[in-house]
Amino acid sequence: MYRSVISGYGKDIGEFLEQGLLIVFSEEVPDALREISMQHNYTGTEDNMEVGDIVRIGSRTYRITAVGESANETFRTMGHCTFCFEGSARANLPGEVHLIGEGLPQIAVGAEFQIKKNDPRESRSGYNNK
């Protein structure tokens, strides 16, 4: 569905990760949001993120539990969404994508960033299925 690499991140990203949030943008991130976001080499996608799909950030894997009403549109047009790592079944804001998994990701330039359709045949996906 979507595969890229992390190309940069802002110095204040850790403060947001501590709150369970990761703001994601293409390399065309607005200057006002550069210091609080992770940037990726956006390659485009026509697919939509859906509940049950898998997000991989570096070595960590998560399952999508909720997708906000505009998250797919902003991801397609700007490579942007906000990942929330608490596994809610409902997005509070339109651009949120909620995830469940083990721990928070380690953000590193050059690490893989991937979103893929759930394949129930995969048994080693690494997410917490609670």
Strands, helices and their partners?
Elements: E1 2-9, H1 13-18, E2 21-26, H2 31-34, E3 37-40, E4 54-57, E5 60-67, H3 71-78, E6 81-84, E7 96-101, E8 112-116
Parallel strand pairs: 2-3, 6-7
Antiparallel strand pairs: 1-3, 1-8, 2-6, 4-5, 4-8, 5-7
List keywords for this structure.
single chain; 130 residues; eight-stranded mixed β-barrel; 8 strands; 14% helix; globular; disordered C terminus
Provide a descriptive summary of the structure in words.
It is built from 3 helices and 8 strands; from the N terminus they run E-H-E-H-E-E-E-H-E-E-E. Helices cover 14% and strands 35% of the residues. It is of the alpha+beta class. The model is unreliable at 123-130 (pLDDT under 50). An 8-stranded mixed beta barrel has the order 1-3-2-6-7-5-4-8. The chain starts with a strand and ends in a 14-residue tail after the last strand.
Q: What is the 3D shape?
A: globular
The beta-strand count equals: 8
Strand content: 25-35%
Order of strands, widest sheet? 1-3-2-6-7-5-4-8
By DSSP (H or I, 4+ residues per run), the number of helices equals: 3
The average pLDDT score comes to: 92
**Percentage of residues in helical conformation:** 10-25%
Q: Which sequence of SSEs, written as H and E, runs from N to C?
A: EHEHEEEHEEE
Q: Tell me about the biggest sheet?
A: 8 strands, mixed, barrel
Low-confidence stretches: 123-130
